[in-house]
């Protein structure tokens, strides 16, 4: 086992830090001892340092699966800034020539970042199986679970990848801690029974949990204006609909002195990036967002997270409000609820998944399927599953199961909203 003294010496020398943050040392020691690990640590804990430490310490290649291009780019920049040149990001932004060049020289990199969609590329897979891998990292590993807030079908292939790579020592990283997501993660990644779960408490005592009910939309909007005029910024408001996200954003800009911007998947990537950077830099006070906003974002001083609509489930709610008060200062998590929100959330829960009738149409018309998979979320899901070799009857079973689960999750969040008892205890 590596001595404490050596660990601290390496931390100081490679990263310039004198202390480990909560959980880091435990994870690193475990990985250095050759044990696969699931690390559930709040955002901002320095999860990346865990594998960067192991890579630089052992000088063995680390392969990191990362779901977002922007996150990947940030990590690559950080490593380069600290003088590590053996870093590369394999994603769909690369030209064919650049990709070919990188793949031919893959063994010379210490850190290889990989976008999950690249797993569909047999050439990439072949190149990966050729290198001598020290550690496989799955960042934002909750994306593997349909229960998590950021499900990515491509992540479902990671179990197969592990197998192809000969079951290397693996580190699954996430800030989302529920049991259901964790067991999904372990099963999908085929982590086996010897895996160790290292988790830090998700209870965030400095976040005040509240729910306010309004009779209708007009009353809700009035209350929202009142709130953002009086609450300290910066803040974050979540919406389930892009259209309302934009509308309320305009309303709040007009009715307050704050600089408010909206953020959702309907905006061009460049705009989204700019909004995110300006929010981090303090030029924007308030963001109106859909669930597309937030993963990997580490802004310590967010004072409130308001949900204008009902959150999709308790898991995503915890993930979303966890973005408040990272600096430990008093913060607020508030759901603004009115009766009609329930119907909207129920509609969303059901419409994201294709019905049996839709499945049948898509099955009988491959052209239609290919075309609609570019525009429509549920057709895209069918397309992805097909690429993975899932049959239509299997899909139908999966979707119907998931519909039931989604409705149960909705019941749970409604119970949270309506509870008369302590909300913290409920969670
Ligand atoms: P996470 O992925 O858990 O959200 P990151 O890996 O992005 O967190 O790290 C968040 C920040 O914490 C980074 O700026 C990183 O440099 C910093 N950090 C990591 N480890 C330490 C440490 N031991 N001491 C001080 N700062 C650290
Ligand atoms: Mg991270």
TrEMBL record:
Gene Ontology terms for molecular function = 3'-5' DNA helicase activity; ATP binding; DNA binding; four-way junction helicase activity; hydrolase activity
Keyword Mitochondrion listed: no
Q: Coiled-coil intervals in this record?
A: none
Domain (Helicase ATP-binding) ranges: 28-195
Q: Does the keyword Oxidoreductase apply?
A: no
* UniProt cross-references to InterPro entries, sorted A to Z: DEAD/DEAH_box_helicase_dom (IPR011545), DNA/RNA_helicase_DEAH_CS (IPR002464), DNA_helicase_ATP-dep_RecQ (IPR004589), Helicase_ATP-bd (IPR014001), Helicase_C-like (IPR001650), P-loop_NTPase (IPR027417), RecQ_Zn-bd (IPR032284)
Q: Which GO terms describe its cellular component?
A: bacterial nucleoid; cytoplasm; replisome
Query: Can you name this protein?
Result: ATP-dependent DNA helicase RecQ
Q: Which organism is it from?
A: Ligilactobacillus salitolerans
Q: What is the lineage of its organism?
A: Bacteria, Bacillati, Bacillota, Bacilli, Lactobacillales
């Amino acid at each position: 086992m590596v001595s404490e003294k050596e660990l601290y010496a390496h931390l100081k020398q490679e990263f310039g830090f004198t202390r480990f943050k909560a959980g880091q040392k435990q994870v690193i020691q475990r990985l250095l001892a050759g044990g696969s690990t699931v690390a559930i640590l709040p955002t901002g804990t320095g999860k990346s340092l865990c594998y960067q430490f192991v890579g630089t310490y052992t000088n063995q290649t680390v392969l990191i699966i990362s779901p977002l291009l922007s996150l990947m780019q940030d990590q690559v920049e950080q490593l380069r800034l600290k003088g590590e040149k053996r870093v590369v990001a394999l994603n769909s932004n690369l030209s064919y020539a650049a990709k070919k060049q990188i793949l031919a020289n893959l063994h010379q990199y210490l850190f290889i970042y990989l976008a999950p969609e690249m797993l569909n590329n047999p050439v990439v897979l072949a190149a990966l199986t050729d290198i001598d891998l020290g550690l496989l990292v799955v960042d934002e590993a909750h994306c593997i679970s349909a229960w998590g807030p950021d499900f990515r079908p491509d992540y479902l292939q990671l179990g197969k990848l592990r197998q192809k790579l000969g079951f290397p020592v693996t580190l699954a990283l996430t800030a989302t801690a529920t049991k259901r997501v964790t067991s999904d993660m372990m099963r999908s990644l085929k982590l086996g029974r010897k895996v160790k779960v290292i988790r830090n408490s998700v209870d965030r005592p400095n976040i005040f949990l509240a729910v306010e009910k309004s009779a209708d939309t007009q009353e809700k909007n009035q209350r929202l204006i009142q709130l953002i005029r009086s609450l300290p910024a910066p803040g974050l408001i979540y919406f389930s609909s892009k259209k309302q996200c934009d509308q309320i954003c305009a309303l709040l800009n007009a009715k307050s002195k704050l600089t408010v911007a909206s953020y959702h998947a309907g905006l061009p990537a460049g705009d989204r990036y700019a909004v995110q950077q300006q929010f981090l830099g303090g030029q924007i006070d308030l963001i109106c967002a859909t669930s597309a906003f937030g993963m990997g974002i580490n802004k310590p001083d967010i004072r409130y997270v308001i949900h204008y609509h009902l959150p999709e489930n308790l898991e995503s709610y915890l993930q979303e409000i966890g973005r408040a008060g990272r600096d430990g200062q008093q913060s607020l998590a508030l759901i603004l609820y009115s009766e009609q929100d329930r119907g909207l959330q129920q509609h969303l829960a059901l419409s994201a998944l294709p019905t049996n009738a839709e499945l049948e149409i898509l099955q009988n018309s491959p052209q239609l399927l290919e075309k609609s998979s570019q525009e429509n979320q549920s057709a895209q899901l069918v397309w992805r599953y097909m690429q993975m070799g899932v049959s239509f009857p299997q899909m139908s079973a999966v979707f119907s199961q998931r519909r039931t689960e989604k409705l149960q999750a909705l019941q749970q969040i409604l119970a949270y909203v309506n509870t008369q008892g302590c909300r913290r205890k409920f969670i």
